[in-house]
Amino acid sequence: MSLKEWFEERRKISGLIEDLIERTSKDYIVNEMDKNKNIKIDFNNRLWVQCDNRENLLYMKYLRQNKSVCEECGYHLQMSSSDRIELSIDHGTRHPMDEDMAAPDPIQFHFEDEPYIDRITSCQIKTGLTDAVQTGIGRPNGIPIAIGVMDFQFMGGSMGSVVGEKITRLIEYATKESLPVIMVCASGGARMQEGSFSLMQMAKISTALYTHQLEKRLLYVSILTYPTTGGVTASFGMLGDIIIVEPKAYIAFAGRRVIEQTSGQKVPDGLQVAEHLFDHGSFDLIVPRSLLKGVLSELFQLYSSIPCEKERTLGSVSCNDQQLSSSAPRNESNSDTVSSRVEKSE
């Protein structure tokens, strides 16, 4: 065998070995990916979680007992919608609405790696929810209310057609039954996978609130949590008669990165944080999570004690309060009723 033939033989053998290694590696990776698809990680059973503010480790058991607030720095971590409902209303008083409503795929949107429907299904399995909001009726300290809570764990709390429909139905039911509405917002904005269908929800919810607040003169309280951005901020998030925000919450329409890339200017630190916006009149109250339930109860009692309409012709005051529920607790001060919004006298 000549030297040239020997080199050619070695080159062929090397090529065969490389092909074999490449095929073997691909088969191994594919098999491992198939195995990992069947592995389910239960994040609810984690023992430790990291604080988003100082990055220190927090024991999950104590964190839940402290309402997901860091004991060291007081930072309010994100909560699931189920935990927020449990925090906001009395135990055993919740009656959910439209639990089985699930999202369609109106524009046949597909990711590069998975269709939109598959993404919805994976989020449903992960969170146990059908979409990014839970709605229903409950009682904080015995006062009947309608409550909706958004869940950021479900596709970033994005607002699609199901989210808009559930919130609209909740408001319409509350208007019919003369109940105040509480809406807890945590969202990245409109859901891009549904195109203009998601943007239509902004107008639909705002129209329902117009009837609830201005025509029926009923109370709507908006609670903004970390983060609330995009179409939710631009619609029902900022339409509350009273707007409450959690400490250090990130509230914005466009995010910091989008603003900087669009305008070419650096956004100052803290510009879109709750405390800075509160100083400029964007919100009514900054309320820590531990005090929220009591503050809401006091607000309802305050609104129930204020006359809602002044009859100019007779010069007398008449209150057209409507009872929240026939089963609501009664006392001598009529604290089981919630008045309509106060019309300011000229």
UniProtKB/TrEMBL annotation:
Stretches for region Disordered: 319-346
Gene name, Swiss-Prot/TrEMBL: accD
GO biological process: fatty acid biosynthetic process; malonyl-CoA biosynthetic process
Record's catalysed reaction(s): N(6)-carboxybiotinyl-L-lysyl-[protein] + acetyl-CoA = N(6)-biotinyl-L-lysyl-[protein] + malonyl-CoA
GO MF: acetyl-CoA carboxylase activity; ATP binding; carboxyl- or carbamoyltransferase activity; zinc ion binding
Stored HAMAP family: AcetylCoA_CT_beta
Limits of the CoA carboxyltransferase N-terminal domain: 47-318
Protein biosynthesis listed as a keyword: no
Species for this entry: Zamia furfuracea (Cardboard cycad)
Key words of the record: ATP-binding, Chloroplast, Fatty acid biosynthesis, Fatty acid metabolism, Lipid biosynthesis, Lipid metabolism, Metal-binding, Nucleotide-binding, Plastid, Transferase, Zinc, Zinc-finger
Family to which the UniProt record says this protein belongs: Belongs to the AccD/PCCB family.
A GO cellular-component term linked to this record: chloroplast stroma
UniProt subunit comment: Acetyl-CoA carboxylase is a heterohexamer composed of biotin carboxyl carrier protein, biotin carboxylase and two subunits each of ACCase subunit alpha and ACCase plastid-coded subunit beta (accD).
Bias type Polar residues, positions: 319-340
Described purpose of this protein according to its UniProt entry: Component of the acetyl coenzyme A carboxylase (ACC) complex. Biotin carboxylase (BC) catalyzes the carboxylation of biotin on its carrier protein (BCCP) and then the CO(2) group is transferred by the transcarboxylase to acetyl-CoA to form malonyl-CoA.
Enzyme Commission no: 2.1.3.15
Leading EC class: transferase
Protein name per UniProt: Acetyl-coenzyme A carboxylase carboxyl transferase subunit beta, chloroplastic
Subcellular location: Plastid, Chloroplast stroma
Stored PROSITE patterns: COA_CT_NTER
Entry's transmembrane regions: none
Pathway given in the UniProt record: Lipid metabolism; malonyl-CoA biosynthesis; malonyl-CoA from acetyl-CoA: step 1/1
